[in-house]
Amino acid sequence: MWTWARRASWQRRDDFDFPIIEPSLRLALDDDTEAGRQVESVVAALRERPQILLLGEPGAGKTTTLYRLLVDQAEMRVRDARAAVPVYLQLGAWPEGLTNLWGYIKRHAPVEEWQGNGLLLLLDGLNEMAAADREARLDSIHAFLREYDRAQVIATCRKADYRDALELDLPRLIVQPMNDDQIQRFLAGYLHDDSSARTLWDELQHGYGLPRERALLHLARNPYLLSILVVIYCKQQALPYQLGVLFRSFVDVLWDRETRRNNTRGFTRQELEHGLGMLAYAMIDEKRGTSVGVEWAADKVNLAVGSRGRVLLSLAHDASLVEMSEPVRFMHQLVQEYFAALVFRNEDDFAHLLEDWSEWKDALCMFASIGEQECQQVVDTCIAALESRRWEIRHGAAYTLDEIWDVRAVEPLIATLLGDPNYEVRRGAAWALGEIGAQLEDTQLRARIVQSLVAAIEDPEEFVQEAVVAAIGEIPDIGVGAVDQLVSMLGSPNEDIRRRSANALGSHPKHKRRDTLDCCSG
Q: Which of 208, 292, 361, 432 has the most CB atoms within 10 Å of its CB?
């Protein structure tokens, strides 16, 4: 069987044989990924547009979707020699020194067969490409899409990372979070017991006494995290409530499994975490993407466990934490971020990482969700960093606090919003205050946030005005005074500000007034 067909099969591991639930997809033909219309499937989207981009959050099922397409097309090809040749390329594993997409394709597919039958090219992980040669590789992808505009191509990317140089000017197919019905069908298909499925469904909605909108259900809407939640629930009859705690419990489950198998290879749990932490941290620090060579990976792990790096990587492979092949990669980017986050425990000061916020934000937020002590460490670091002389570090601190939603940051963020000389930093503070205000139950503190946002609504920079208006729209019960300010912004010459003002007013229906409707209709 050809390489492309061999890639269509993979080993099913115990504890992870899950039912397949088709994702909900929305097709956007322009730059507005929030617009678009529902489509039945990826195949249906391909019938309309032969080249599309599949966007989604980490763990949304992008890679799984490509695997399904690969298997289905490989089986079709076996039955019909005239069918298109499917080729799956892991972009994070693109070999160093090779920048031409055709060169990468030829390593995986019988190109001579494609010439007469068509091609289904599956490009997985635009955001996972290593920084080295990324620009040249993207140029090669662009050139291929132009030259072979009839070839079927699907490229995937994390939704948050799809910007600037990564953009391919393709229709966007956005993977939607799992809805209630999909989650319940997933639980029923895995547990094979209606009573257990209902019990777990109730835990996802109401566990820990949290209201439904703040419960574990938001994690369960991500297929990858839902699969972990189900495994942990089955093993421990309990569910964690933070992402870092979730992955700590996940590693607990996997470590216990290897211990029962007498397969720990003489390592302790701490050595496993230290070794994989050194590897994950180095991959981010050196901008290596999500895949590295075996020798490089072993050298990094050796820093933690002496000369036994390869043995520990083999154990991590058995434990379903890494793929131990050439190249080496963590089983999921979220797993890589979790192990990188563990290294922060040994760092006295990681404020310098905020300067490179886009690379470190996910690991920092993962670290903050491991426990209260870790969260305090990140929040304290970010609050102190808001006073840095370097705007890049202040910018990274504001946007990290936007992800963490900690009330201890409210006053420092207000001071930043109203007084920082850099508009990018003020903008980040506005976003962060909106996110925190949306979660608050303390009405006085929420009013304080709204008051500060209203004070900043006429910031001299339109980018800040836009963020302030959007932030107000996120916060419940903003009061009539804030509504008046939003109404006034409907007259802004900036279309984005007018649109966000209208959206914000729409999110506060009890404050709607006749003059508001007149402004909108005019």
A: 432
320 touches 298 (CB < 8 A): no
Instruction: Work out the average pLDDT over 58-72.
Output: 88
CB atoms within 10 A of CB 522: 7
Please choose, from the candidates 312, 254, 256, 242, the residue with its C-alpha nearest in 3D space to the C-alpha of residue 280.
312
Distance CA(348)–CA(342), nearest Å, equals: 13
Residues 6+ apart with CB under 8 A from 501: 469, 486, 487, 489, 490, 492
For residue 46, how many other CB atoms are within 10 A of its CB? 18
pLDDT tens-place string over residues 17-60? 566 777 888 888 765 555 678 888 888 888 889 999 999 887 78
Beta bridge mates, 54: 156, 173
DSSP-derived secondary structure letter, 392: H
Start-to-end C-alpha separation, the chain: 65
Is 80 exceeded by the pLDDT of residue 236?
A: no
Tell me how far CA of residue 443 lies from CA of 402, 470, 485, in angstroms. 20, 19, 20
Distances (CA, A) of 204 to 181, 226, 302, 335: 13, 10, 40, 22
Mean pLDDT, range 91-106, rounded to an integer: 88
Pairing verdict, β 37-39 and 51-56: unpaired
Give ∠ CA 70-75-79 in degrees, rounded to 5.
145
Strand, helix or coil at 27?
A: strand
Residue 521's pLDDT is 38
The confidence band for 389, taking pLDDT boundaries of 50, 70 and 90, is very high
Closest CA to 277 of 236, 235, 209, 330: 330
Rounded average pLDDT over 171-179: 90
Task: Check residue 514 and give its pLDDT.
Answer: 36
Q: Which two structure tokens, joined as six digits, stand for 494?
A: 């900036």
The 3-class SS string of 49-81 reads CCEEEEEECCCCCHHHHHHHHHHHHHHHHHHCC
CA gap 293, 327 in Å, rounded: 5
For tokens 């040749």, what's the residue?
Answer: 85
List pLDDT tens digits, range 457-477. Answer: 889 998 898 888 888 888 887
**33 exposed, middle or buried (CB, 10 Å; 0-12, 13-18, 19+)?**
middle
Contact status, residue 48 vs residue 41, Cβ threshold 8 Å = no
pLDDT in the model for residue 342: 95
Q: Which residues lie across from 156 on neighbouring strands?
A: 54
